[in-house]
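Hi everyone, sorry if this is the wrong subforum. Our group has a chain we'd like a structural model of before ordering constructs, and none of us has done structure prediction before. Sequence below.
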Amino acid sequence: MSFTITTPHDAATAAALAPRERETLQHIARGCTYLQAARLMGLSKHTVDAYLRRIRAKLDITSTAELTRTAIALGL
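Answer:
Right subforum, don't worry. Here is the predicted structure as C-alpha cells:
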C-alpha cells in the first residue's frame, strides 16, 4: 500500500511568500522550534511567529504538520 501526499499548493504559492517567510517555513519544516528558527535567522521569536501567522493566512493552513507537509511539497 502506498500513499500520495497531495496539496493544493504549487510553485505559484511559494512565489507568493516573501523570502523571509520561505526561510522561516524551511526551518520549521526541518523541525526547528520557533525559538531555534529565530536564532538561526537573527530574529526574535515574536517575528518568527508573525511570519508563520502570515504564511498560515496566505496558504490557508492551520497546523504545524500541514506547514511541514506543504514545505516538502513545495520543495523547500
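For your construct planning: The radius of gyration is 12 Å. The chain has five helices and no strands.
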